[in-house]
């Protein structure tokens, strides 16, 4: 598919040879070690990502009912999700600096405390003893604190994978941490808003305590791979400059960021799109859950495949093409009534190929931008996605026009929610397809981190004190 494929195959072959003539004596005698506590840190990050995702879209699957309960308009309810995007746009660059400068441990603990405080404030705001005029401001305040926590935990998977995991486990570790965010979305679809708030509060508190007490090291005692030995990450501002002058990275930044924006719109607006055609909130939640379950399954399979083959570019391009196909089909079938099976199948397709490619694309961003810090490269992609998501949401909501008659509508807020989404979903499919075509046609890159490891890695990676955890050792 591009010039890097054959070269990557050669690099993989080189890295597997025991007697590489180009290694110096020090590296040849050396041996990288990995530590079983990397799985504990991964578990903590998964817990944080899961709980934070539950906060992000708590109200989106039941937007019309939330508007009734909080006595606000549907647009204000949408801002409970949009606040994450606004905070990400203005706060993410600071977070990437924190991750790459102050370290993973500080970032995870800071994120966990913001997450917990936001969860507690949201629950308090929903109590019956709170004055009516204070309910929405308190819920929004808690949501905003959780939004500040999101960059700390959602930028961390690539950093954790690079710091603690060997090269043959990085994509899998990134997949597990990233998909925990998606699992959080699944959990919130299974419960009512009230139970989600309580469960999320407990979940966030446990995650905060475990992170604060359990994570004690900023970095492992010894590096897990050659890239962590040979890499001297660029200073933050210099790293950003290098990224923005890297042609391959810029295409990934814009095109995959567009994909993130489309998926944010899909997750946020799914219930509003379907209820006008007579589909209940329960069915909309089920569709979201199906997309997530298939997305997690796809991510698991892709993580294993990419760890073995290192075909980051090929996998990303193929998945983006199939996602665009699914988005186009969804734009058509979502406007039909009494087509539950077809809509459910399309959501499964959309999730399997769309959600699953996220961790692979983030690893691809690190590969094409090495030795820039992992948090910086993945963080900018996420920021691009959030900016485009905000623009897309504003555009799609502006294109949704009131319907003169909506006999099939089951939207709880009545005429305020009876909007025609025919044009918006077609525009969403067009944006998804445009981003995919640009990426497939113009993205080509060499895998810089793989190259560094192929020319500088020692013979073996051993799992230090892993006697009782052999099931994790590959």
UniProtKB/TrEMBL annotation:
What is the name attached to this protein's record? Major facilitator superfamily (MFS) profile domain-containing protein
State which residue ranges cross the membrane: 39-59, 79-99, 106-127, 172-191, 248-271, 283-306, 318-335, 341-358, 419-443
Keyword annotations for this protein?
Answer: Membrane, Transmembrane, Transmembrane helix
Location in or out of the cell: Membrane
The cellular component terms of Gene Ontology attached to this UniProt record, alphabetical and capped at eight, are: membrane
PANTHER family xref list:
MAJOR FACILITATOR SUPERFAMILY PROTEIN-RELATED, SOLUTE CARRIER FAMILY 49 MEMBER A3
Q: How does it sit in the membrane?
A: Multi-pass membrane protein
Q: Name one GO molecular function term.
A: transmembrane transporter activity
Pfam family of the protein (one): MFS_1
Upper classification of the source organism reads: Eukaryota, Metazoa, Chordata, Craniata, Vertebrata
């Amino acid at each position: 598919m591009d010039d890097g494929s054959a070269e990557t195959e050669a690099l993989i072959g080189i890295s597997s040879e025991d007697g590489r003539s180009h290694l110096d004596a020090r590296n040849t005698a050396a041996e990288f070690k990995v530590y079983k506590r990397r799985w504990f840190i991964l578990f903590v990050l998964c817990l944080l990502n899961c709980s934070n995702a539950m906060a992000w879209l708590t109200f989106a699957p039941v937007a019309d009912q939330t508007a009734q309960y909080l006595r606000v308009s549907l647009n204000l309810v949408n801002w409970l999700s949009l606040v994450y995007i606004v905070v990400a746009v203005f706060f993410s660059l600071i977070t990437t600096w924190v991750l790459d400068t102050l370290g993973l441990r500080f970032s995870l603990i800071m994120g966990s405390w913001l997450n917990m405080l936001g969860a507690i404030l949201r629950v308090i705001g929903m109590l019956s003893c709170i004055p009516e005029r204070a309910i929405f401001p308190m819920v929004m305040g808690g949501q905003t604190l959780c939004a500040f926590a999101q960059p700390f935990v959602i930028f961390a998977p690539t950093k954790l994978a690079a710091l603690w995991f060997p090269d043959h486990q990085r994509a899998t570790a990134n997949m597990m941490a990233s998909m925990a965010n998606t699992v959080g979305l699944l959990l919130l679809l299974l419960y009512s808003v009230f139970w989600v708030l309580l469960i999320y509060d407990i979940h966030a508190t446990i995650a905060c305590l475990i992170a604060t007490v359990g994570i004690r090291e900023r970095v492992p005692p010894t590096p897990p791979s050659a890239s962590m030995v040979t890499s001297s990450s660029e200073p933050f501002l210099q790293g950003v400059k290098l990224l923005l002058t890297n042609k391959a990275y810029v295409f990934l930044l814009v095109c995959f960021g567009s994909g993130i924006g489309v998926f944010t719109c899909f997750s946020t607006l799914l219930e509003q799109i379907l209820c006008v055609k007579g589909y209940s909130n329960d069915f909309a939640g089920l569709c979201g859950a199906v997309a997530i379950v298939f997305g997690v399954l796809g991510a698991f399979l892709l993580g294993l495949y990419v760890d073995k083959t290192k075909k980051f570019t090929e996998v990303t391009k193929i998945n983006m093409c199939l996602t665009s196909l699914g988005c186009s089909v969804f734009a058509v079938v979502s406007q039909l009534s009494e087509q539950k099976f077809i809509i459910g199948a399309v959501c499964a397709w959309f999730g399997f190929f769309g959600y699953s490619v996220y961790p692979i694309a983030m690893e691809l961003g690190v590969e094409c931008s090495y030795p820039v810090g992992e948090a910086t490269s993945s963080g900018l992609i996420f920021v691009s996605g959030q900016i485009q998501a905000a623009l897309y949401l504003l555009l799609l909501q502006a294109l949704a026009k009131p319907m003169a008659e909506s006999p099939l509508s089951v939207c709880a807020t009545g005429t305020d929610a009876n909007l025609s989404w025919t044009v918006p979903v077609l525009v969403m499919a067009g944006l998804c397809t445009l981003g995919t075509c640009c990426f497939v046609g113009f993205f080509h890159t060499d895998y810089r981190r793989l190259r560094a490891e192929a020319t500088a890695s020692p013979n073996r990676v051993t799992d230090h004190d892993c006697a009782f955890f052999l099931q994790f050792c590959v």
